[in-house]
Design goal:
Strand content: under 5%
Low-confidence stretches: 130-135, 186-193
Radius of gyration: 21 Å
Number of helices: 7
Helix content: 55-70%
Mean pLDDT: 82
Order of helices and strands: HHHHHHH
Length: 196
């Protein structure tokens, strides 16, 4: 009934699910990069391959779903999201319980994003498909745009710290230093203008 009376809510939830899955895939890919480039135990390589496969799968799923404008492959995707969330929270618990280690923010962010996508996907799956063709048949554009902006802000607020805490984020060049040369403070190809 909610889907029939509130098509904007269904459309906004669908966007939220795929935004969360896409952001989670980016965090998974950054985690994979850290594991695959680290020198250490063979278990890190296996974890990196799993994180890489998970990131690519969720990225493909979110792009395909956005293209189709529907919840695609829910029988596969929702259990996969639950498994990813369980794996991420296991790493978070292990990192907190291990002496000398701190909270793994990247895995915590990936866990949160997996739960967001799982919760929204579960809600959408329970909704009945309707096509009444009446006034409630299409989502309202303004409300959907506002919901998309809100979903992007929420997802970004979780994904950004997760990406920053990953190995790739820790080795990133800080903003504002991209154009500076080490000796002059400016880009080597650019010379400061003397004229106004």
């Amino acid at each position: 009934m909610a889907g029939k009376q509130h098509p904007t809510l269904k459309a906004a939830t669908l966007l939220f699910v795929y935004f969360a899955a896409m952001a989670g895939s980016m965090v998974d890919l950054s985690i994979a990069a850290g594991y695959l480039t680290a020198t250490g135990a063979p278990g890190l390589i296996v974890s990196g391959v799993v994180a890489l496969a998970s990131g690519l799968a969720f990225l493909a799923w979110s792009l395909w779903g956005l293209h189709r404008n529907s919840l695609v492959f829910p029988r596969l995707a929702l259990p996969a999201l639950a498994a990813a969330a369980a794996a991420h929270i296991a790493v978070v618990i292990w990192s907190v319980a291990t002496p000398g280690r701190s909270l793994d923010v990247s895995h915590l962010a990936a866990f949160s994003l997996s739960l967001m996508a799982l919760g929204g996907g579960g809600w959408l799956r329970r909704q009945h498909k309707t096509n009444d063709g009446g006034a409630h048949g299409l989502p309202r554009t303004g409300r959907l745009l506002a919901a998309a902006f809100g979903a992007a802000v929420v997802v970004a607020s979780v994904a950004t710290p997760g990406l920053a805490a990953s190995m790739a984020g820790q080795h990133a060049v800080p903003h504002g230093e991209h154009a500076k040369a080490p000796s002059e403070g400016t880009h080597p190809g650019l010379t400061p203008s003397r004229h106004h």
